[in-house]
Amino acid sequence: MAFSSMVKDINRKIILESFWDFSRNTKQDITKKTELSFPTVSKLVDELNEQDIIHMLSDKRGETGGRKANEYILNQEYAYSLCLKVEREYIEVFIVDLYKQNISYDKIEEKAISAEKILKVIETKILNNKIKSIVVGIPGFIHDGIIGMADGIEALNGCNLKTEIFQKFNIETEVANNMNILVSGFQKELGDISCIHIGKNGPGSSYIVNGKPVSGAFGFQGEVGFNFYDEHRTFREIALEGYQNIDMIEYIGRLLLQIITVINPYKLYLYPLTDINIEELQNYCLRYVPQEAMPQIILKKTYDKDYQYSLLSRGIHLLQAII
């Protein structure tokens, strides 16, 4: 019985994959896509329809007047994801449906963010019982939901936020570093890539190698701000001093050189704090590395938009894993 149940669950997941692209499917369509038997598909599709996970569209007739096979489509309102973007002095809150469409948005100004206040925000939003997943993005060093250090949010340091959220609300939860979330939006790109964000509290980076985000043994990967800029200061310390009297070409150039020599990405997406001359930055790096090793540097000014896109995508992926 246990084996039969496992096989049924696997087949159910396979059938659901036919709907994640939001397409309309007949039972025959799904049989062709999945190569499962028609009786298996028919039974599981009927069950998914009864569970309201998918909807049967109204009957349609062919051009000759004969009845067409029923079409089914994903019920985008079956489940929602609650996504939180936690920053030093505010929390942005998104609720999205299975089509990644915003159901609601809120920005909560808060100068003393803590785990208790994050839990309170979640509590006010999960009155909607359709919320089945929670994703929290936080700038800092995070491993398995435990926050080793949150940039500018000291009250979160050492907090096992993932466990606290799950124990309180019994909802599948992910707590992750902001840059690791952001880079996941680039997974479909070919070649190894790196994303670098120059923020007010210091630089952060993330990487995709061999098509997968690099997580590291303890979640500390990408914390390049702790590297030394010179013999006296780290990149992070310079940022916390407001980048005073710093040549940003040299600052970012030194940072890129470390990443180029360790990861040597094919593309490097740079989210700077201020406008940067890419040609000057490339010429700085070429003083130390050969042209053949130089990645394509792409300047981006859409950090918030890209981060939000990836954050909401993580919420949907978590939903897909548990439905």
From TrEMBL:
The keyword GTP-binding does not apply. It holds the Pfam family ROK. GO terms for biological process: D-xylose metabolic process. Keywords: Carbohydrate metabolism, Xylose metabolism. CDD domains: ASKHA_ATPase_ROK. InterPro entries: ATPase_NBD (IPR043129), ROK (IPR000600), WH-like_DNA-bd_sf (IPR036388), WH_DNA-bd_sf (IPR036390). SUPFAM superfamilies: Actin-like ATPase domain (SSF53067), Winged helix' DNA-binding domain (SSF46785). Transcriptional repressor of xylose-utilizing enzymes. Belongs to the ROK (NagC/XylR) family. This is ROK family protein. It comes from Gallintestinimicrobium propionicum.
